[in-house]
Specification:
It comes from Candidatus Roizmanbacteria bacterium CG09_land_8_20_14_0_10_41_9. GO terms for molecular function: ATP binding; D-alanine-D-alanine ligase activity; metal ion binding. Its main location: cytoplasm. InterPro entries: ATP-grasp, ATP_grasp_subdomain_1, D-Ala_lig_Van_CS, Dala_Dala_lig_C. With 353 residues, the chain is an alpha+beta fold. It has a domain at 5-116: Rossmann fold (3-Layer(aba) Sandwich), CATH 3.40.50. The protein has eleven helices and 15 strands. It has helices spanning 5-17, 48-60, 74-81, 104-111, 120-126, 129-138, 186-200, 247-253, 269-286, 325-332, 337-352; strands at 20-25, 65-69, 85-91, 95-97, 100-102, 147-149, 164-168, 182-183, 204-208, 214-220, 225-226, 231-232, 261-262, 291-298, 304-310. The strands form five sheets. The protein has a four-stranded antiparallel β-sheet, with helices on one face. Helix 1 crosses helix 11 (337-352). The protein is globular, with a radius of gyration of 20 Å. The two termini are 21 Å apart. Bound molecules: adenosine-5'-diphosphate and magnesium ion. Adenosine-5'-diphosphate binds at residues 144, 165, 167, 171-175, 177, 207, 209-210, 214, 244-245, 295, 297, 307-308.
């Protein structure tokens, strides 16, 4: 049972209504492997076991679940069942149609189906690191300067000084972010730009590389509750790892290393207040809804910058991973996985009622 009576009542009403909860996701076909760049394209997707387990939890909450992979025919499938669907639980990264990508949010808005998470406008912004940053900057939020490269031979802007970091513009889960992403000179920059642009068939975003503490902030509900802040311990990575939350760290090291994720992060009150204020500003400025996770990092002088917004954030069940950031932060706040799922669903349903 949820402690929040309003949430619990809304969930019970939904279940009584007999409507379906359509769970939409992307499936990956190979586990991310830093030595096999072909696997990078699906890093942001989920293993079939994760999706099965997630579905099991949703059913355990009492929801009649309709599971749908976000393949090209998902619009048709949602359209057919439109009248029976009460809510879409959006856990998908994108619908891939040949070379084009679109968000499930656009389909739901078109069909008039309610869904978890923010509007399509916000979702599209959040999926593009440069556009999201530019919107946040307009609202006075501190973000690092950046340069977007659609072609690897474009000249480097004069305000971009090495060391720099090269990232895919529209990926998540550290896809394309490896030990080689931090570049010290022109030669390394060009090599990495060719790799990232070619691999993901999309632009690369280049930013100054900053080396202070990193914080990830998970938020749920409307208005949002800020969950205990997570700090990946980048100071004590084994030799050979660059101090970033890279693919190597996230997919090879993190699960084994007991002390890599610190939650709640140990923060002095001013820093904690500053991080939370920033997180709320990001939430408001991008009009986020129901759930999200915000990644931030400090520079050497302790100034905090927002790196990106994760929407939808990873929600891997605890049986599969104990280091999935948002469920981990929720657990630290006393919210177990099923109650986390119910909180997200109830938050969305309450927005529409
Ligand atoms: N400008 C930067 N300076 C220092 N580290 C960075 C910077 N941008 C990203 N990182 C590191 O790379 C990781 C992944 O970058 P992020 O922008 O969060 O992409 P993803 O969507 O893959 O999580 C971050 O968690 C951080 O450790
Ligand atoms: Mg991130």
């Amino acid at each position: 049972m949820l402690k929040n009576i309003r949430f619990q009542t809304r969930i019970s009403d939904f279940i009584k209504s007999g409507k379906l909860l359509a769970f939409v996701y992307n499936i990956r076909h190979a586990y991310p492997d830093p030595n096999d760049p072909h696997t990078f394209l699906e890093t942001d997707y989920d293993d079939p076991e994760t999706i099965d387990c997630f579905t099991k939890h949703l059913k355990n909450c009492g929801f009649p679940v309709l599971s749908l992979e976000a393949t090209a025919d998902v619009e048709e499938k949602l359209g057919e069942k439109k009248e029976d669907i009460g809510l879409v639980f959006n856990y998908s990264e994108a619908i891939i149609e040949g070379d084009r990508k679109k968000q499930i949010t656009s389909v739901c808005e078109k069909l008039g189906i309610s869904f978890t998470g923010p509007s399509d406008k916000t979702q599209v912004l959040a999926r593009n690191k440069a556009k999201a940053k530019s919107e946040m900057k307009k609202h006075g939020i501190s973000v690092l300067p950046d340069q977007v490269f659609s072609d690897s031979s474009e000249p480097l802007a004069s305000n971009m000084r090495f060391p720099l970091i090269v990232k895919p513009i529209g990926q998540g889960s550290s896809a394309g972010i490896t030990n080689k992403s931090v570049v010290e000179n022109e030669k390394e920059l060009r090599k990495q730009l060719i790799e990232v642009i070619g691999r993901f068939n999309d632009s690369a975003i280049v930013e100054p590389f900053i080396t202070g503490r990193e914080f990830s902030i998970a938020l749920i509900g409307n208005p949002p509750q800020i969950l205990p802040i997570i700090e990946p311990n980048l100071k004590s990575l084994p030799k050979g790892y660059v101090a970033i939350d890279s693919l190597e760290v996230k997919w090879l090291y993190e699960e084994e290393a007991q002390d890599h994720l610190m939650c709640p992060a140990i923060l002095d009150p001013d820093l904690k207040a500053g991080i939370e204020k920033t997180a709320r500003q990001v939430w408001d400025s991008l009009e986020l809804k129901d759930l999200c996770r915000i990644d931030t990092r400090c520079d050497e002088d302790g100034n905090l910058y927002v790196l990106e917004v994760n929407s939808p954030p990873g929600l891997i069940p605890p049986e599969i991973s104990t280091t999935s950031y948002l469920p981990l932060a929720a657990r630290k706040a006393g919210i177990e996985y099923d109650n986390l799922l119910k909180t997200i669903v109830a938050s969305a349903l309450l927005r529409y009622s």
